[in-house]
Design a protein that fits this description.
Layout lengths: L24 E5 L11 E6 L3 E3 L2 H4 L1 E3 L7 E5 L2 E5 L9 E7 L2 E3 L9 E6 L7 E9 L10 E5 L6 H4 L4 E4 L5 E7 L5 E5 L14 E4 L7 E12 L5 E13 L3 E7 L7 E8 L2 E6 L8 E4 L8 E5 L6 E6 L2 H4 L4 E10 L5 E10 L8 H31 L1
Parallel strand pairs: 10-18
Antiparallel strand pairs: 1-2, 2-6, 3-8, 4-7, 5-6, 7-9, 10-13, 11-12, 11-14, 14-15, 15-18, 16-17, 19-20, 20-23, 21-24, 22-23, 24-25
């Protein structure tokens, strides 16, 4: 009789091959491309448990939302709650970029976009391009790129974007759900998250020409393989390609300055000067109040930027006047950092030589000592007079 025994060996359980597949879309409520949608809660289901990576940075909703939406991962679902009131007859796109990942291995689902419309049509055009830093031509990550249907330059500072996208690590961006038309394109480091240029310290970029979206039919080849070495079939497939896809933007930081009249002076009778804190596109407008300003001066600009201006008076009778009164109109930076027109009345007198302070002090001191001496001399007499 034989007895065989052995101790159990400690080891780890093998879980099979590593998951390298990203999550796959299953369904959603409402369904993608839904028209006349009134729901502000969107639930999107995938084929495995998922997580969201930096949703606040990567997920871009267009048109932009003033109130921050709630975006959460719940098991196999992503739930988006929009806080803003839905706009009528508008296409909404939720661009997740690569924020959706499987829960175990973190495989990202690339370029996933969900779309619906509150009207009867679904706008499907797209505009793409690249954003570079103007100083070194390096790609810029994380900048907001937006479109304005309002073609006025002031729209960039007064109204939020109509459609938005965000640049990735390569500086690439794509704006989806665009309707046919003409647009102005800008980029913005939106520090205060109001989707418009409202702070002088924000990095910006702009396209100097209008952007007109279009599309065309193209053909690409798809290859089917029998194995890793043998091609089975090469098929041609037609697809719709959206243009423009090569918009190039260069970002920069606007120079911050405050335009104001720093000082005025008239050191000699035949010349007076104005000094401003920043360059200007044009000369200030001057109107004489006690003289005729027409052809009365020779203007000298030492810098050539309209920030230091010297006026030489031609007529000797004019510069012999003690005071020149004038109205000056120039550009001025107000409290909202906007250039506005400002008018002020000025008086220009020649600078007179002042007496030396030391001589005046000595003279006053001499008078004081004389008064004290007189008081001491007169005090007995005053007392005698009072006693009588």
């Amino acid at each position: 009789m034989a007895v065989l025994y052995s101790c159990a060996s400690v080891g780890r359980l093998e879980g099979g091959s590593i998951d390298e597949e990203p999550p796959r879309f299953v369904t959603s409520s409402p369904l993608p491309g839904t028209l006349h949608n009134k729901k502000k809660k969107i639930s999107i289901e995938f084929d495995e448990f998922i997580k969201l990576e930096k949703a606040n940075e990567k997920v871009v909703i267009s048109p932009p939302q003033v109130q921050q939406p709630e975006i959460k991962a719940n098991g196999k679902r992503v739930v988006v709650n929009l806080q803003d009131t839905l706009k009528a007859n508008t296409t909404y796109t939720i661009d997740f970029s690569d924020a959706i990942q499987d829960n175990n291995e973190g495989n990202p689902m690339e370029s996933f976009t969900y779309t619906f419309s509150t009207g009867a049509e679904l706008d499907s055009m797209a505009i793409a391009g690249t954003l570079l830093d103007a100083s070194n031509l390096e790609p810029v990550k994380g900048l907001l790129v937006g479109l304005h249907a309002n073609l006025a330059d002031s729209a960039f500072t007064t109204q939020p974007f109509d459609r938005v996208g965000r640049t990735d690590s390569r500086g690439r961006f794509s704006i989806r759900g665009v309707a046919p038309g003409k647009y102005r394109m800008y980029a913005l480091m939106d520090a205060d998250q109001n989707f418009k240029f409202s702070q002088p310290t924000e990095i910006i970029a702009f396209n100097d020409s209008l952007v007109i979206p279009s599309m065309e039919e193209r053909t690409r080849q798809d290859t089917l393989w029998k194995d890793s070495l043998t091609i089975d079939t090469v098929m041609e497939r037609r697809y719709t390609h959206f243009l423009p896809d090569d918009v190039l933007l260069r970002s920069f930081k606007q120079k911050s300055f405050s335009q104001r009249l720093m000082k005025t002076e008239r050191l000699i009778p035949e010349k007076f000067s104005f000094y401003f804190t920043a360059p200007a596109d044009s000369l200030p407008l001057m109107k004489g109040l006690n003289f005729d300003e027409k052809d009365a001066f020779v203007i000298e600009q030492t810098t050539g930027r309209n920030d230091t201006i010297h006026y030489w008076i031609k007529d000797s009778l004019l510069y012999q006047q003690d005071t020149l009164r004038m109205s000056l109109t120039y550009l001025y930076t107000d409290t909202l950092e906007q250039l506005v027109t400002r008018s002020r009345r000025r008086k220009r007198r020649p600078k007179r030589k002042r007496r030396k302070k030391g001589r005046r002090v000595r003279k006053n001191r001499s008078r004081l000592l004389f008064c004290r001496w007189m008081c001491m001399r007169l005090r007995p007499w005053m007392c005698t007079t009072i006693s009588h």
